[in-house]
Amino acid sequence: MIPTRSLSAQSGFFRRSAEELGRLSRIAWNTEALSTPTKPYVMLDFQDKEDVQGCKTMADRVVGGFSTASVDFEPGDPETNTPPHARFHGSISTKLPDNWRVERTGYAAFRNKDRGMWLFGRLYWDVDPYAYLALRVKSDGRRYTVNIQTDSVIETDIHQHRLYTRHHRIYQNAYANTKEGEQPGHVQSLENEDLDGYPAPQGVPDALSEIPPEYTIIGSSSSSATTSGGTGWETVLLPFNSFVRTNHGYVVEPQTSLLRQRIKSIGIGLTDRVEGPFDLRIHKIWATNGMSEAEVEEERQICGADALSVDEGVESHWIERNKKSKGTDNQKSTDAKGLKGLKSEWDE
């Protein structure tokens, strides 16, 4: 692509081009394209005020509703190990406007703006070599959804996944799942530790279920922000291959895989239709193959007792046990966990 005068005049065109060329050069130099990369690929770093300002909010106010949404930059606090971050906050209202065409309100969301152009066309995120989308957040427990938009044939398609956290709450209508001894129609808030006895809703994809699926990697099993050593911050790993294709909030068929090579935007939405304020803090969003040793120090500093460990990557099943071909005495290297185990295999 030859940068025309109007194109090169776009804010940050040459900076974006230089950054992307530098990133691709590092991948080629380190031969990461030929192996599973161990370094994280940061997509949105809200320690940078420009990344926060590069986001846009959406709410039902565009159709006359009364929900509000804002994304603000919050400076860090070294005394409490609080990093600079983005604060997604506002209020959800299900009140309908005086417009008979509007039948449903009660939603708010944000996403990054168009990333613009660079020397070789439109700028996308290419996360094809990575297994997980990682988000470091401090949640109020509401049912947020992570939204990924790609350069797909149908522009309005979005791939979604619930943002499950240690503080994840559900508001469960007992007509769908009634626990013994409760009256139908009972609606209550449940924390993670209260989910035993409540079966997962039938016909709902795991990624959008009220019950966190087993493959979701969350930190400490504790469910209170006041847990000793906890800071409220936590890192959640969501497998890219578990995101569900939707259109205007509905799951569509046939399902298609997320186009990882051409991601246009990432955002978080709230559509639980529970009236009242919401407040979600986001430190960083990145693609990863599990927590690497280089990330652990920052992870522990910010998340405290709820930090993920290097070995969490084992849940991606990269290290397959091959008992038929190897004896138990020689199996220690293949049983190593996560990125640490992968590296030992590469070095052999």
TrEMBL record:
The keyword Mitochondrion applies. The keyword Chaperone applies. It is found in: Mitochondrion. It comes from the Eukaryota. Residues 45-171, 228-282 form the NADH:ubiquinone oxidoreductase intermediate-associated protein domain. Keywords: Chaperone, Mitochondrion. Signal peptide: none annotated. One of its GO terms (cellular component) is mitochondrion. This is Complex I intermediate-associated protein 30.
